[in-house]
Amino acid sequence: MSSQNIFILGIESSCDDTAASVIHNGKILSNVIASQKIHEEFGGVVPELASRAHQQNIVPVVNQAIKKANITKEQLSAIAFTRGPGLMGSLLVGTSFAKSLAMGLNIPLIDVNHMQAHILAHFIDEEGFNKPPFPFLAMTISGGHTQIVKVSSYFDMEVLGETIDDAVGEAYDKSGKILGLGYPAGPEIDRLAQLGNPKAYSFTKPKVGGLNFSFSGLKTAILYFIQREVKVNPNFIKENINDICASIQFTIIGILIDKLKLASKQTGINHIAIGGGVSANSGIRHALKTGETKFDWITYVPKFEFTTDNAAMIAIVGYLKYLENDFSKQDVTASARLKI
User: Fold this and answer.
1) For a pLDDT cut of 70, what percent of the chain falls above it?
2) CATH of the domain at 221
3) 42 and 19 share a domain?
4) What is the pLDDT of residue 39?
5) 143 a known binding residue?
6) Is 141 known as a binding-site position?
7) What sections of the protein cross the membrane (predicted)?
């Protein structure tokens, strides 16, 4: 299988990062990301600005990925790209670029589901990182998604539970906005949480049946709590920021771990993998490690650079699909609400 010389170019443009990566027989040769700083001043991603920035970034980013991989574009075996889910305008830039490049080079085109890619990032050949055995449970947590997925093989995935409203990343960002923190707020809350007392304030966990999640009620509870306290003491946020962040983080992680415990119990699967941008959070990583001794879990956390939106995860899915001759037609279209 790996005696073949397979070079896959992966292109990711689902949100506000333009990324390209070259993979050779499962090993990453390059992983280039151009982030868009412009959204920070708006406190969130502006779709129109995002797609415009993708148009400016995509040629230099792809060019750099091929250069860094030390190959020529003629050596590429196929082009893999994010078909969805994501922002329509952003997806269209990556999709049309990938289609044109594949056509120009006369090589296969492979469409990739962004959420599957977050899970399959675990199969990138990376020293010191184990690959989960099938079946395993994957929890994908990001700005736009919160899901628990049963993974029976590379392309046999079943969503067991997902958020019915906000994603976990949104809960972080909206809490950060309430506290006057910058965007994205997740890393900042994580940093401040490590300096505070997680039990300083308690927030009610939402009651949601089965393995589904809900974060909008928690966000509202945090808002009312802050408004109430600031009325009494205008300096409340400033004086207690570490404790507030620690308490918010403690609650969010509690919600995630409770559902994982339930999923593990229901399926009898104790191999747990995480992916998505929020899996870079130190509190979540620590809670998973604790789960190993507490609940007899075997956990898998991808390398930091493969957790946020990146093209290496798109390239590895492209590689796995290439091995199965699973190619796309030229009339493939982007899909903003693509399901696993």
Assistant:
1) 94
2) 3.30.420.40
3) yes
4) 45
5) yes
6) yes
7) none
The answer to the question of whether 281 is labelled as a binding residue is: yes
d(CA 317, CA 120) in angstroms, rounded, equals: 7
Which residues touch 307 (CB under 8 Å, ≥6 apart)? 121, 275, 276, 277, 279, 280
Is 54 annotated in a binding site? The answer is no
Residue 160: which pLDDT band, with cuts at 50, 70 and 90? very high
Place of tokens 């990032």: 121
Is 173 annotated in a binding site? The answer is yes
User: pTM value?
Assistant: 0.91
pLDDT one-digit tens code per residue, 117-142: 999 999 999 989 999 999 999 999 98
Q: Is residue 159 located within the same domain as residue 88?
A: no
Q: Annotated binding residue at 114?
A: yes
User: Distance between CA atoms of 306 and 280, rounded to whole angstroms?
Assistant: 9
Is 144 annotated to bind ligand?
yes
142 marked ligand binding residue? yes
Binding site annotation covers 186?
A: yes
Residue 140, marked binder: yes
Three-state secondary structure call for residue 177:
helix
* Locus of tokens 């050779």: 24
Q: Which structural domain, as residue segments, surrounds residue 26? A: 7-122+307-323
